[in-house]
Amino acid sequence: MHYYQPPVDYIEPVFRPPSEADSLILQVTNGCSWNRCTFCDMYIDEHKGFRPKAESDVLAEIERCGQAMPWVRRVFLADGDAMALSVRRLRSILEAIRKHLPQVRRVSAYCLPANLKRKSVADLQQLRELGLTLVYMGAESGSDSVLAAFDKGETFESTAEALLKAQEAGIKRSVMLINGAGGKRYSDEHAEASARLVNVTQPEYLATLVLFFRRGAEQRVRAGYDGDFEPLSAEGLFREMQQLIGATELEQTIFRSDHVSNALVLKGTLGRDRSRMLDEIETAIEWARTHHIPLRQQGSF
How far apart are CA 273 and CA 252, in angstroms? Predict the structure, then answer.
């Protein structure tokens, strides 16, 4: 008796960026090698402990995908930490994609700044030439105070260094920041330092979501702030966004603030559309002064 074997054997849950909705999700690692960020509950389940997927299994899955869906044009390397793999293993995966899925035009992955420290620009250039053209980096904040409270394991300098290294290698960067990450205590610092981070690195893509809590995350975040954490109101979130966008000096960065957690949707290119977006934020602030705006806290990453 023959049993059907799906092209990819997933360890649930599997996460991917919204822009990868039409991509083949190829799970090359399970979980996240850091997995200590206080706000994040993506990989806290017992069966989501970090480990690389067996290379032979990944290569076999790529071959099966080539047979079952040869039309695939985009591949996202999951889970949260594919770039933790060695250059040799990433090269093997990319070469297999090129061989068995020749229609693929973009391979992307989540990326922790720490995972680029051990990879040279030449290493990354080689991966870029093999098809890795985009990395998603959850910078969260440019503020060292916020990053320390979040137990992010990164600093302004380490994040900027990683983003600039990817840029030098020709890999596009999509940066995520968290609106409200510093609460009332660090709101100004968070906005200003985050603007400095993106000004220095000039990412091709920039997005924001609003800090929200699930599965004990609020207690973990408060503990990181020694109990001194007061979330921002809708008006406070809008003012923080106004400060962030107003301080950006970006040349051609595509900006999106349209996550399910965002009460205010903003889309445009910075800096071309900065004035228009600031006007939209000011309108939202005026509205928030006289109307109750519920925050959509039940979204997912």
Answer: 10
DSSP state of 31: S
**Dihedral sign of CA atoms 60, 61, 63, 64 in order:** positive
Peptide bond into 153 cis (omega under 30): no
Per-residue pLDDT of the chain (301 residues; tens, 9 = 90+): 455 567 999 989 898 998 999 999 999 999 999 999 999 888 888 888 899 999 999 999 999 999 999 999 999 999 988 999 999 999 999 999 999 999 999 999 999 999 999 899 999 999 999 999 999 999 999 999 999 999 999 999 999 999 999 999 999 999 999 999 999 999 999 999 999 999 999 999 999 999 987 767 788 888 889 888 999 999 999 999 999 999 999 999 999 998 878 888 999 999 899 999 999 999 999 988 887 655 444 333 2
Phi, psi for residue 240 in degrees, rounded to 5:
-65, -40
Domain ranges of the chain: 160-296
